[in-house]
């Protein structure tokens, strides 16, 4: 088999979590991908039993705490990893567990620690030629109003008062962005908005992530919220894998709806309160141990909305959304979010 047609061997981080599982499944059904090596902190997801049973197996799984230096060193220097001959790393940030963006060991959020360690070991591994990292569109600075149409060249929110959850996304963005254009490793950074999966689950939104429950928001504001299906996140990852282009790319779905609508759909309705009271509510939530549900309170993302200019991803990666996010009736008659082919 020639180099141009050689199958890709791909490592996927957090392959045991919802978005990671979706990416792994897409890659396992990709005829141009050979082996998929997934990392996670839990047991092997039962959804992969069929692939584990294959002989020889195309799917391999290992339990690794990517936020810990020793755990990463042991894995990336292991015989299992060397034998897999990984040429591409797909970094899916953790999202099933709460607090990945909040201070961890030595005050560094787990999300940030993982980004540093994954990039370091990708750079140090000779067989790895490409790194695809999923990042957040909430890294951008938002101007007042809902007319924020953000391109990859838009300014990042480097305000020192930015909430810790968003600060961790910005730090990760800058870690990967710093390697774009370097000779050693091809790096593609995909900035995605709020991710929606079937059943009404929402990820990577600093306001709506976490368990259902009431969220406070300032009176008079209902920011526009860009959405993308988890299936389209996987499609965008595949497009980046096969395009061989490096750089930063906005990817998004078709829908953009008010934050209040997404909150109501997902069991996280907003409670409009006077703006000055938001800081007090945030402090009280922290004292009660419920800071995660009010993360970002007082930030611009609670007031100003945005949509993403995705023309670069369409032009250079060939990515266009394949799925729409909408409402459907569940078996008990309740409305819930679902994703369906466009």
What does this structure look like?
- This protein is an alpha/beta fold and 342 residues long.
- It is 29% helix and 25% strand.
- It is built from ten helices and 17 strands.
- The protein has helices spanning 18-28, 49-52, 69-76, 79-84, 110-124, 164-177, 230-243, 259-265, 275-287, 311-317, and strands spanning 8-12, 33-40, 59-63, 88-91, 130-136, 148-150, 186-192, 194-197, 201-203, 215-218, 224-229, 247-250, 256-258, 270-273, 306-308, 323-329, 335-341.
- A seven-stranded parallel β-sheet has the order 3-2-1-4-5-7-12, sandwiched between helices. Strands 9-8-11-13 form a four-stranded mixed β-sheet. Strands 6-15 form a two-stranded parallel ribbon.
- The longest helix is centred in the middle third of the chain and has 15 residues, at 110-124.
- Residues 291-297 have low confidence and may be disordered.
Give descriptors for this structure.
seven-stranded parallel β-sheet; globular; four-stranded mixed β-sheet; 25% strand; 342 residues; 29% helix; alpha/beta
Spell out the blueprint of helices and strands.
Elements: E1 8-12, H1 18-28, E2 33-40, H2 49-52, E3 59-63, H3 69-76, H4 79-84, E4 88-91, H5 110-124, E5 130-136, E6 148-150, H6 164-177, E7 186-192, E8 194-197, E9 201-203, E10 215-218, E11 224-229, H7 230-243, E12 247-250, E13 256-258, H8 259-265, E14 270-273, H9 275-287, E15 306-308, H10 311-317, E16 323-329, E17 335-341
Parallel strand pairs: 1-2, 1-4, 2-3, 4-5, 5-7, 6-15, 7-12, 8-11, 10-14
Antiparallel strand pairs: 8-9, 11-13, 16-17
């Amino acid at each position: 088999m020639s180099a141009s047609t050689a199958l890709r061997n791909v490592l996927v981080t957090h392959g045991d979590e919802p978005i990671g599982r979706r990416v792994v499944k897409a890659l396992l059904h990709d005829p141009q991908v050979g082996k998929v090596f997934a990392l996670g902190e839990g047991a092997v997801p039962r959804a992969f039993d069929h692939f584990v049973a294959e002989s020889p197996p195309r799917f391999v799984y290992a339990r690794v705490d990517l936020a810990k230096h020793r755990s990463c060193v042991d894995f990336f220097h292991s015989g299992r990893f060397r034998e897999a001959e990984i040429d591409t790393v797909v970094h899916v940030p953790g999202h099933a567990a709460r607090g990945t963006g909040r201070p961890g060991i030595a005050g560094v959020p787990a999300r940030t620690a993982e980004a540093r360690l994954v990039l370091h070991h990708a750079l140090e591994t000779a067989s790895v030629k490409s790194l695809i990292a999923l990042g957040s569109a909430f890294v951008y600075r938002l101007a007042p109003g809902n007319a924020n149409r953000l391109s990859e060249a838009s300014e990042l929110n480097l305000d020192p008062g930015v909430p810790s959850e968003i600060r961790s996304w910005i730090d990760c963005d800058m870690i990967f962005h710093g390697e774009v254009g370097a000779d050693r490793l091809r790096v593609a950074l995909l900035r995605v908005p709020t991710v929606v999966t079937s059943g009404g689950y929402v990820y990577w939104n600093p306001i709506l992530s976490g368990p259902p429950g009431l969220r406070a928001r300032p009176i008079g504001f209902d920011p526009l919220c860009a959405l993308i299906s988890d299936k389209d996140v996987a499609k965008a990852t595949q497009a980046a894998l096969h395009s061989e282009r490096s750089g930063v790319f906005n990817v998004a779905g078709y829908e953009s709806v008010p934050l209040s609508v997404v909150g109501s759909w997902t069991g996280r309705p907003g409670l409009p309160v006077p703006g000055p009271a938001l800081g007090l509510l945030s402090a009280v939530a922290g004292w009660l141990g419920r800071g995660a549900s009010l993360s970002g309170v007082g930030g611009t993302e609670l007031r100003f909305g945005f949509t993403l200019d995705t023309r670069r991803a369409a032009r250079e990666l060939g990515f266009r959304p394949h799925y729409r996010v909408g409402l459907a009736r569940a078996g008990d008659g309740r409305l819930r979010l679902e994703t369906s082919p466009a």
